[in-house]
Amino acid sequence: MTAARTVTVVGASLAGLHAARGLRTQGYDGRLVVVGEEHHRPYDRPPLSKEFLTGDGDPGEGLGPLALTDPEEEAELDAEWLLGVRAEALDTAAGEIRLTGGRALRTDGVVIATGATPRTLPLPPLDGVHTLRTLDDALRLRAELRAGAERAVVIGAGFIGAEVASSCATLGLDVTVVEAAPLPLVPHLGEEMARVCAGLHTRGGATLLCGTGVAGLRGAGRVTGVELADGRVLPADVVVVGVGVRPVTEWLEGSGLALDDGVRCDAGCVTALPNVVAVGDVARLDRPGSARTVRAEHWTSGMLQGDVAARNLLAGSTVERFDALPYFWSDQYGARIQYAGRRESGDTVRIVEGDPAEGGGFLAVYERNGIPTAALGVDRPRPFMRLRRELARAPQPAGR
């Protein structure tokens, strides 16, 4: 796609921003358009469930420390920003993106970076019930937590749910976390380490209820409680639903692109059309060396994929693959959890530093046939990062 006159990045997100940066740094000097459904320029999402909720003072009207760009960089990027505009369809034959209001945007190349949106439960739309994904979501939740709320129920004990619960506890609320699975985070960490991390809720003063679902909500107009499947009712002033996300692909239906819990791409973020790439939470990539595909909802993946996708888009074919080691972190109840690698069911786990039983920090290594496959650290940032670098350089078991 060396003669592209216009490239459109759909999604003013971290991944979209890094793709736009990648295009410019790799020499693209044509028209660059960034379409964002939110009214905000790209911002950092990880703080929204943590220090943004617990921080003192007025968050103000701007992005403040959440901003991922500044005026100088935006000038260098030389992009047209269409914010508060949703992409409604992609016509790959005509090379057009249909936007809200009936506007059609002609484009030669497309970067799909529309991210993901929270999953919801079939619950009545009561005031006081929240999901958390965007800055506007966080502003609404932050205001309610500071308006006299005393009891919070968080539905879902994944990373977002745990971080929100931790923030609510920090603000002095009585917090209960409801998890349908027998134990949270088992698919990510395995049962042994998931049990250790679940203990952080108790350490932080929250109550964790596992193995029960939510039957409904109590309240008329505003939520007053959560009714569990086992008949218990939890009083609540605020309810946060954190049961995962789904990729935003509805606007691509009928485009001819392959959709399968994300936009199907090869290992270089390229779809079946060489002038259309996908990055971040919405992209489902072929996994090199295996018959698997993977969609990563990690900050680092979104950031790193942008550069690879830009290079392949400009080349008109896949000249580089994305093969970075998966990495994520989470801050909960004063502890920093860091994970890197590709753990799979059946991998063993070995504690190499610290002792989880003592309630302090530790470093664990997952292994398969004696070969390290992943690492987990709790309050061990330096040795964890050293181990992460070693994992990135080491050969992995076949198929990982």
Automatic annotation (TrEMBL):
Signal peptide: none annotated. It comes from the Bacteria. Pfam families: Pyr_redox_2 (PF07992), Reductase_C (PF14759). Residues 41-63 are annotated as: Disordered. Residues 327-395 form the Reductase C-terminal domain. The keyword Flavoprotein applies. Residues 6-299 form the FAD/NAD(P)-binding domain. The keyword Flavoprotein applies. Keywords: FAD, Flavoprotein, Oxidoreductase. Its cofactor is FAD. InterPro entries: FAD-oxidoreductase/Apoptosis (IPR050446), FAD/NAD-bd_sf (IPR036188), FAD/NAD-binding_dom (IPR023753), FAD/NAD-linked_Rdtase_dimer_sf (IPR016156), Reductase_C (IPR028202). This is FAD-dependent oxidoreductase. It comes from Streptomyces rhizosphaericus. The lineage of its organism: Bacteria, Bacillati, Actinomycetota, Actinomycetes, Kitasatosporales.
